[in-house]
Amino acid sequence: MTEMNATPMFGEFEEHHIDVIPDNERHGKVWHQFTLWAGGNTNVFNLVLGGVLIYFGLSFWWAVIAIVVGTALGAILIALHATQGPKLGVPQMIQSRGQFGFYGSSFLFVAVFLLNFGFIAAQLVIQAESMNLVADLSIPWWIVILTVPAVIIGLYGYRWIHRVAQFTAVIVGASIVILFIQASVKYGAPSAKEMSWHAPTFGLFGAGVALLVIDMLSFGPFVSDYSRYLPKKVSAVRVFWSIYLGNLVATVLACTVGAYITALMPKLSTVGAVSKISGPWLLIIMAFSLVNADTFNAYTGSFQILSLANMFKQLKPSRVIRIVPFLFTMLVGMVIAIIGYESFVNNLSNFLDFLLVIFIPWSAVNLADYFIVRREKYDVPSFFTSKGVYGGWAWRGIVAYLIAFAAEIPFVSQVDYTGFLVKHLGGADISWVVGFFVAGGLYVILAKVWPMSTDSMSSDSEAVGVTS
User: Could you give all domains of the chain from N- to C-terminal order, each with its CATH number?
Assistant: First the structure.
């Protein structure tokens, strides 16, 4: 039994955290993944992200093209990562111990934790700004208030995250469509300049595409966290398409409408445009559209803390052990939002660009290992011990990652840093393309030249939980 025996009014609190989900506790339908990710992307954050492309200098139509291209590419990566969840039954970054080793993967846990509380902070600020236009309460107070429902959902865990996402996908999706109709009927089309088909520079367009790629890939380090409860024998192809389309449809819809209303009213913020077009009712819906996304990030952020703790102590499945790190992650995100709310959203694109440089090489190594090198065959219990077949430090993954990361640097184009090769590309940041192919290609080469032990490539080991 676990430490908390009382059954809550709306169901039991989840007790699994980074441990393997046993076969007899697998549940859910593949189509639930579509609604989960559609709900996770139908929100005001993606409205704002679509507006960012207009502020970049893209016209509306070129912004739409960048949104479609970037989302389509990024969604491929995360849908491929997600197929690992049902097969292995562990969180995404725990699986990365297969490529980087029990200790070698620790830097990734820290990086994902930074990603999680960074997104919590940015989202809470956007939510608070929406509510501040409805009721004259300070943004810090709104940040605190809006944290509460996210905490409640997270206490219940996986099942409630899915339920709220299904509700969000319908209600918020319909609201965004209404927003677009109201904008078109009341204010017509954006100006001829904003609707221009004149081609932007390669660098400007590339920056827009990259922003949407990382918007998608930011889910990569934890996408399997939400597919690992599915039965092991579900079709990987169906899982891929369910998650791919859920992300693609919702993100393109929200970002396109965000770009449209921003182009329509370029002197206002995207949230300000929502207020002028639809009024308080939609601001309230938009503010609460991100509640589940806050929970997403705190939920998986807690796994990073537990993964680091697991390096020193084995952990039993426990509600308390899952909930305490979750509350800590949410608290950190809330505090960062309160401290930096005046500038955090303005620096959103820089934050996302920074994450792109970090996580693209990881994504490439992870996918190359899973689909090409080991071909889905892992010794799952070895993810939880340094004495397993993956050892403490898996040098092939580490070397491939570090070389790819170094190869990215000359191609990075950000406000505070510009690589020396960027100017030859018209200002385009193609670091993510370079990082992906260098990391993935080099990892496959290293695995071929220095083959891994066949023990580490055994077919499905019996999934055992993390025990003390």
Answer: 23-457 (1.10.4160.10)
